[in-house]
Amino acid sequence: MKSKAEQAIERISEIRYPLILQGCCIGVLTGIVVSFFRRILIAAESLRDSVLREAAGGAAESAGTSGVPGMQSPGTAMMQHPRMAVLLLIVLAGCFLGTWLCVRLVPLCAGSGIPQVAGELKGRVFQPWWKVIPAKIIGGTLAIGAGLSLGREGPSIQLGAMVGKGFSSLIDRLATEEKLLMTCGAAAGLSCAFSAPLAGAVFALEGLHKNFSTDVLLGSMAASIASDFVAFYVFGLTPVFDLSIRQALPLSLYWTLAVLGVLLGFFGMIYGKCIAFTQDLYDLIPSKAGRLAVPFLLLIPLGLWYPMAMGGGYRLVTQVADEKFVLSALALLLMMKFCYSILSFSAGAPGGIFMPLLVIGGIAGGLYFTAVTQILDIPQYYIDNFVIYGMVGYFAGIVRSPVTGVILITEMVGDFTNFLALSVVALIAYITADLLGSVPIYQQLLERMLRKDPDCGMTDQLRRNKVLLESDVYISSIMDGRRLKEMKLPRGCLVVSVLRGPEELVPGGDTELKGGDRLTVLCNQGRMDEADRILKKMCRTERIR
């Protein structure tokens, strides 16, 4: 009988077309799960909006928690109807209790879910998919539906990855194949959450694997497209942000994009530091219930007097683009949304920061445009452009996946005329955040999670599972022109294949590597992260001559 290592090497060489087929299956399943999640969230948020409108005494047309200006404060109406206030407090307490139970029983359902997926792909985390899926759906619905400033996109990525893992378990795949199927599921989850199939596939490469692989790309694309078909069937073809962008920004105004990119990169660095600082403060509270109670209690004053800061804030973007806020109101909205999003996420509730940070970026872009128009004579219809520039720049500065950001915003808006401008802002924001020493937010969150719990569900048996890693040898990298034995991989790791163009070499210690080679490394799952760091340093870092 062949060992698992031999099976892994044999199967990975023939995995491309089976992975595409399996990716399609995972995409459909993920589309069903995530569409269900989206549906119940829409229902919960619609109910919350209706309750706040009712509490406001049937004020003039408004969007409830979306915060269309002009909605009267529900505070006075609540004081006049104490029974309604008591009922809402009971519902809020129920949402808090349900969220706390989910986090207590399944700790890995807390937070965004993207760090957990990235950790499992690195061999550092084990998630029981049969527990995470229901806990994430229930906990996320209660937390986001209650009004916490969280998004559904991170949870959708985790749900998709867990669907992929469950599918892998049912068809009895090996550890390497399981990780590929999890990646397909994660891509499908993002695709269904945003109706953005290309962004889902690119995120799988740029945000999770951080290394180009044709197999991962094809499998992720198949899963993303299949998932998007389901989303189109359920939600239709309307873009997530239905903005009326009239034309591209003229080149004469591109200097304003450079300034905006620098500001957003700096703002993104501040966001990461605020998340870390707030999490440190929350750690002073000994119980999970106490930490979760903070954002839930803040819902009371926010719901009564400033409901615009509640929820994911999807419709805030279009309202800013429709010029429904003056400069001072935009500044207040930005501050409130920024603070409450950080307080909601840092408490550990099941929900993501993907959408809140896009909304904050959109508000920042609108604020920047409104301030610039006080000085320059720029047509007002360009505010739509600057809203999406703010979104992509803030995303690139925090998540540090600029290509994903540009493609995601383009697909979400359904307009390609601003592709160049989006790329400029994303690049400048990325460089600014990098020069300021900012750590990508999901890497920061994963490192913090592993510091608090180094095992994260991993056992010695799981660590001994054999997996395959792939890495390109970059031209001018340290290993370009050097012998394989100079790489010094961790003990128990073995290079089993060197692909040079169409030719596959049988590697030995004296094999000389060349730029463009593709290595396949066999190692224990527990050594994956360490081996990948060495591969990145030796094969994907340019040599200083």
TrEMBL record:
Residue stretches making up the RCK C-terminal domain = 456-537
Instruction: Give the main localization category.
Output: membrane
Q: Which InterPro entries match?
A: Cl-channel_core, ClC, ClC-type_chloride_channel, RCK_C, RCK_C_sf
Ion transport recorded as keyword: yes
Keywords for the protein's UniProt record, in alphabetical order: Chloride, Chloride channel, Ion channel, Ion transport, Membrane, Transmembrane, Transmembrane helix, Transport
Q: Which GO terms describe its molecular function?
A: chloride channel activity; monoatomic cation transmembrane transporter activity
State the annotated membrane topology for this chain.
Multi-pass membrane protein
Where is it located? Membrane
Task: Spell out the GO cellular component terms annotated for this protein, sorted alphabetically and separated by semicolons.
Answer: chloride channel complex
Pfam families in the record: TrkA_C, Voltage_CLC
Q: Where are the transmembrane segments?
A: 20-41, 84-103, 180-205, 217-241, 253-272, 292-313, 325-343, 349-369, 381-399, 419-442
**One GO BP:** potassium ion transport
Q: PANTHER family from the xrefs?
A: CHLORIDE CHANNEL PROTEIN CLC-E (PTHR43427)
What protein name is recorded for this chain? ClC family H(+)/Cl(-) exchange transporter
